[in-house]
Amino acid sequence: MTRINVGVVGCGNISGIYFKNLRRFPFLHVAACADLDVGRARAKAAEHGIAKAGSTDELLGDAGIDVVVNLTIPKAHASVAMAAVKAGKSVYNEKPLTITRIEGKKLLDLAKKKKVRVGCAPDTFLGGGLQTCRKLMNDGAIGRPVAATAFMTCHGHESWHPDPEFYYKVGGGPMFDMGPYYLTALVSLLGPARRVTGATRISFKERLITSEPKKGTRIKVDVPTHVVGVIDFACGAIATIVTSFDIWAANLPRIEIYGSEGSLSVPDPNGFGGPVKLRKPGDQDWQEIPLTHGYEENSRGLGVADLALGWKNKRPHRASGELAFHVLDIMHAIHDASNTGRHIKLTSTCRQPEPLKARLPFGQVE
Amino acid sequence: MDKVNVGVIGCGNICGIYFKNLKRFPFLEVAACADLDVERAKAKAAEFGIPKACTTEELLKDPKIQVVVNLTVPLAHGEIALAAVKKGKSVYNEKPLCVRRAEAKKLADKAEKKGVRIGCAPDTFLGAGLQTCRKLLDDGVIGTPVAATAFMMGGGPEGWHPNPAFFYQVGGGPMFDMGPYYLTALVSLLGPVEAVTGMTRISFPERTVGSGPFKGQRIQVEIPTHIVGVLKFASGPIGNLITSFDVKGGANLPRIEIYGSEGTLCVPDPNTFGGPVKVKRIDEKEYREVKLEHGYEENSRGVGVADLVLGIQNERPHRASGELAFHVLDIMHTIHDAAAAGRHLALKSTCGKPRALPAGLQFGQLD
Question: Is A224 within 8 Å of A203 (Cβ atoms)?
Fold first, then answer.
């Protein structure tokens, strides 16, 4: 079997885990990497034993590359992905798919025309924790889902991040930063949403950087930092989501799903592992459920492997552009609902991604 | 000073704690009690040493009675209260103030015209737990409040309640049943709400009575049983409130938390008077439990009545007021309206934040 050639564009912080994990899939070959800073690409190539390092244009012009993994900054996601698709390559973006819905739509339309695939992080929903949740739900462990809650609360990133300004500018904010993990998990477990409402606020107009090297610099906050959404899923369940950079401490869980016959405590959707807990009516306490699925460790890149193999084997891939676009649409629509004071009916939808098989060893996705 | 004479109408389950507690306030006298079933009123009168047991009409006609405590079923709250007000009496209703806003408005207008007072349960916000929270907020311990969450997640009362049908009919549902505790607590801590939105659903169109004489009987659910509300407080914070009878396996959610610019406050169960109250400031690694220094830590249902009575005597506003209860009723209805209309709705009502109680009060003491 010939291996599928993957090229990675963007050799920043997140690339290391992708390089490390992608080589563990026997059907993939990371053939090249690129960065605006070619020196940085060369360093990564040397570190991870990648044959080619060069500019983004060179990588996109390389006829041998089948799939581009786009790890550039969010603002560049659309243009790099469009260029890859135009070059006839499938592309897998880091989250979010794109900043705007228009860009996202354009990308999916062109990919369809070009008959290539679009995939997108996060792929944490393919991890052992969330796939165990999926199996429990499919097996009817909590009956029919009726409601859910999801909370991501913190006080922003200006106390530790070296350059936190972008968190408070257009494209940033807690929903666009962390929402993809929570919403992708919810959609993978409950299916698509049909309507949302929400309320947002900027609780602090200014942020003070307390981390080096920009310590003492003030950031003007341009986007809502406390974002409350209510989501009506097509299956009937109503979910409440809070993402906030305005909260110092809270005793809130990450995600809980409430069903007609029990409740499910879903692990941190920014991780691949557990714990998964179940509570049935009458139980005194939550019961931890052993994970039934592989990919419990940090498996970032699993979504790329699934896309590549899906393309090869002519089956849909799971961390799809369609799913990521729906998640992007939900995030924007929550803000729109807050701005217009109306519930927003979503125009996008997606298929619920297929579950993975239980107990897969790392490297295997089918 | 002469004691104020109080008459209690409705001698059902809840009245016992009122009778027991009201006797402990030296400035009021429970002079009469009444019930649709006069025998039941007589039994309670004997049990609690109340001089007179009679019909509702007799009680309302008794010129000695200045304040009526209305412990009837929710659907009767509006009518009985209005009758009391028409007789020139002040009235304190069990929650909710009334089922419909129009009734409540009529009641408030009439009371104003007659120069009498309206009060309403819950008065748990006057308890040691919530008053300690109030003091912490007033003292700026968590800075400026920016957000809040409140959750009442249950599976519905049909498993244990002997006659639960009314929970699933107009006037019932988790919001009208339990919302007053949560919303009164939130409004007493953060002030009035200016706009809301929400979504609701009926997750189970039918319920089955699980115990008692009606065991096995089916109940058709007529009203939403999972209600998600988003509250915009006039002072700025956004609150999330979920009340549900649809959560069968339980939830790992706190009752009420208030998030401030300098820390977080964990508010105790607003259906009780006690603690624990916990706080975590920016500079603290762990939550710390705050010692309650306010009175009324035990079940003090009736303290709102006593405060109303003393408010009359001392010519000052009372705390568990009709205005507060009307605002809470309006919030509950408006969340349902917003869900039905698919939009945010501004509230037409508002209220003042009730005055805090001083710390260190003994039971029986209020001013």
Answer: no
Domain range enclosing B17: 4-120
Domain that holds residue A278: 125-289
Of A232, A258, A262, the CB nearest to B246: A258
Q: How many domains does chain B have?
A: 2
CA distance A30 to A234: 39
CATH label of the domain that carries residue B78: 3.40.50.720
Residues contacting A262, CB < 8 A, separation 6+: A141, A142, A143, A278, A279, A280, A281, B248, B249
Strands A218-220, B256-260: pairing is unpaired
Share of chain B above pLDDT 90, in %: 95
Whether B357 maps to a domain, the answer reads no
In a shared domain, residues B79 and B130: no
Whole-prediction pTM: 0.96
- The secondary structure of residue B330, as a DSSP letter, is H
CA dist list (Å): B183 to B96, B122, B148: 12, 10, 11
In this predicted model, what pLDDT tens digit does every residue of A151-202 receive, in sequence order?
999 999 999 998 899 999 998 999 999 999 999 999 999 999 999 999 999 9
Question: Where does the pLDDT of residue B171 fall: very low under 50, low under 70, confident under 90, or very high at 90 and above?
Answer: confident
Q: Which residue among A87, A120, A153 closes a domain?
A: A120
pLDDT for residue B207 = 97
A-B contacts (CB, under 8 Å): 150
Look at residue A2 in the predicted model and tell me its pLDDT.
87
Q: Does A148 fall in a domain? A: yes
> Under an 8 A CB cutoff, do A341 and B252 touch?
no
Confidence of residue A1 (pLDDT cuts 50, 70, 90): low
Determine whether the interchain pair B280/A249 forms a contact, defined as Cβ–Cβ distance below 8 Å. Answer: yes
Question: Does the residue B348 lie in any domain?
Answer: no
Instruction: Tell me the percentage of chain A whose pLDDT exceeds 70.
Output: 100
Mark yes or no for CB contact A146/B230 under 8 Å: no
Q: The CATH number of the domain where A8 resides is what?
A: 3.40.50.720
| Most B CBs within 10 Å, among A258, A288, A336, A340, to test the B interface | A258
Give CA–CA dist A142/A259, Å, rounded.
Answer: 5
* Domain shared by B218 and B114, yes or no: no
Q: Measure CB to CB from residue B146 to each of A246, A259, A337 and give the nearest one.
A: A246
Nearest CA in chain B to A285: B250
Kindly determine whether residue B230 and residue A197, on different chains, have CB atoms separated by under 8 Å.
yes
pLDDT tier for residue B218 given thresholds of 50, 70 and 90? very high
Give yes or no: residues A104 and A147 share one domain. no
Contact B251 A203 (CB under 8 A): no
